[in-house]
Amino acid sequence: MQSQFLAALQKPFTFWQKSPEIPKPSAAATAAAPPTMPPARPLAPGAVPGATATASAAPEASDAYGSMPLGLEGYCPVTLAEKGQWTEGRAQWGARHRGRTYLFAGEDQQRAFLADPDRYAPALSGDDPVLAFESGSSSPGQRRYGVTYQSRMYLFSSPETRSRFAADPTRYAGRVALAEAPTRSTTGTILR
After folding, report:
1. What is the dihedral of CA 182, 74, 151, 187, to 10 degrees?
2. Which of 11, 31, 63, 102 is deepest in the core (most CB within 10 A)?
3. Rg of the chain's alpha carbons, rounded to an integer?
4. C-alpha span between 34 and 162 (Å, rounded)
């Protein structure tokens, strides 16, 4: 079951193809592992009126203006957090926050995000927190390696860094909270 779940995250739109078998984590890592993000559930064509294919397979795809990479590969973070559904965002409902452009399914989702962006945006703007704190490097995480821990989304660049996080999630979550603590009165979120 878990390998099917991980396979669906890795290739959400090719669920009808046979995916390679993913090695299972050790019993110790499984016991300490935080729950993974919900599987991607592609929408039927036309399910979101006027939806455009703005999502890219590349984690750092730029928006139409080329100014900031897309957060969550163009999927709506509010719909994911509130309903557990992967819904493509629409460019007309975008907002920029902490160096990423997030797209939303509609105006209501955009409004919810703007009211509390850090609730919905991935930790560290989607960068891998293990690499950020262990090696000081900025490496974009991928949604296929994402987990939710204490109602916060964390993305990782590989299964190995996700396993290191799972071994001691409080170590990284505390450092993320400190790194994201506001230093000024502004949040850095702007409408597109």
Report:
1. 10
2. 102
3. 16
4. 10
Residues with Cβ within 8 Å of residue 101, at least 6 apart in sequence: 63, 67, 68, 69, 70, 71, 94, 95, 192
pTM for the model: 0.62
Q: Is the pLDDT of residue 11 over 90?
A: no
CA-based end-to-end distance of the chain = 40
Three-class SS state of 99 = coil
Sequence letter at residue 2: Q
Tokens 């160096």, located at residue: 99
Q: Is the pLDDT of residue 103 over 60?
A: yes
| DSSP bridge pairs for 152 | 149
Per-residue pLDDT tens digits for 36-49? 555 554 444 434 33
Give tens-digit pLDDT for 43-83: 444 343 333 333 333 334 443 445 789 999 999 999 999 99
